Structures are given as C-alpha cells and as structure tokens.
Amino acid sequence: MKFIKSVFKTMKDTTWPTKKEATSDTATVISTAVMFAIFFAVVDFLVQWVVSFVA
Prior knowledge:
Protein name: Protein translocase subunit SecE
Subcellular location: Membrane
Organism: Liquorilactobacillus mali
Keywords: Membrane, Protein transport, Translocation, Transmembrane, Transmembrane helix, Transport
Strand content: under 5%
Number of helices: 2
Structural class: mainly alpha
GO biological process, one term: protein secretion
Distance between the termini: 69 Å
C-alpha cells in the first residue's frame, strides 16, 4: 500500500510537457531520424560506388 501511495505522490509531483512542447520534441526526433537516414543512405551509396569502382 505504501508503494501505491508513493506512485500517486510521484505522479502528482511530475511536471508533464504541454501539447506544444510534446509536438515540438516529437518533430525534432522525427526530423533528426530522417536526417540520419539520409546521411547514412548517401554514405552507403558512396561506399558501394567506390567498392564497385575498385573491384
């Protein structure tokens, strides 16, 4: 029972992000993931091109 009370107290003390903050953070994560995907795709293409040119 003590654990449950502690959980509820912690939930009340937690500061949750606003909808605007959550949307902004989500957009940042998605855009960063897309940028990394593009970067690694370009690097992969270049490495394949170099390997096929050399071999």
